Fold this protein.
Amino acid sequence: MPETITAKSPFDVAKIREDFPVLSQKVNGHPLVYLDNAATTQKPWRVIKRMEKFESEEYGTVRRGAYQLSESSTRMYEEARQKVADFLGTPDRNEIIFTSGTTQSINLVAYSYGRKFVKAGDEVIISNIEHHANIVPWQVLCEEKDAHLKVIPVNDRGELIMEEYEKLLGPKTRVVAVNHMSNALGTINPVKEIVDMAHAVGAKVLIDGAQSTPHLNLNMKDLGCDFYTFSGHKMFAPSGIGGLYGKMEVLKTMPPYVTGGDMIRQVTLEKTLYADPPSRFEAGTPPISQVIGLGEAIDYLQAIGMDKIAEYEHSLLEYGTKVLEEIEGLRLIGTAARKASILSFYTDQIHPHDMVTLLDQDGIAVRGGHHCAQPTMQRFKVPATSRASVAFYNTYEELDLLGASIRRAIKLFS
């Protein structure tokens, strides 16, 4: 077994696990080992109970009623927006737009900013390790506008080749859209450097923060990007809620993405005047309960401390890397010097889908497939990978169980 990581957890992991009811169950007669956190995270009791209380005692529509339930719901809704702003490190809560998650947020920017400002012959830059949600919207935009999509290559460790990125930048670059952390590899990209280089040629930058938001301490003002996206269900909040941070001076130049009620200042049969951001981009009745749950999840994370979470998760990643490196015939995909949370692996003996099924027999939940990152799989010449992804409620012992289960699976096929 690997050499023991000596760093102690900065918090009581056993106590933390008690906050998550799903972790106490058994699967196929074994205690659940949940290692699919990059896909979606489990919910703590306080988020579950907060939404239940809101739904049963406090629910009212927002921004539309002068009665008490509506006014209190509106206050709680906007308090949640402030919590997101504080969490992301922006002083202006109106720079936070609630969406269904990262996918909708990226589409919002591609549709609204992209269709207004990207012209024929312009260039959009993405990387070779993007989630499909940060590839397809830009492909559609470039096809529609007769613009050009350029791709930052990656090295064999899964790191962006920054010298090649610099060569791609030029006077025709309008948008650079890259992830902060790869969902397939765990690579943490040098986003501040990426932003500074793009701004030097006048381009706007969108950072896909779906994976990074639950793991890193963030500050939008320091990062300097124009847009940053996140998904609630990956940060211990409900599904169906997430958001977009956008610089106010940029948001004000953008037309609405979806039209309807509550995104207007005035409507006549001849003309409509749009509301200022964020309302301009939040047409219709929003997912109010989910927003309240998101705010509670942020309170929970802040109470633990993002620095403490990052420290512990890094030690889990180091330990898990050593566990997997000692398994003969197993290949780690993604070995960047800076990475977090994710252990993607491949063996010629077992297809990743079969590996997932075999691990599930031992109660271990991991993901197998291309992870909505087929260009990444093509770059590393594998059809798919198995992916174990940790969160702060996971333990060293669970990673030992993962290693033992993989060994048994490989032995069956050897």
Summary: Confidence is low (pLDDT under 50) at residues 1-6.
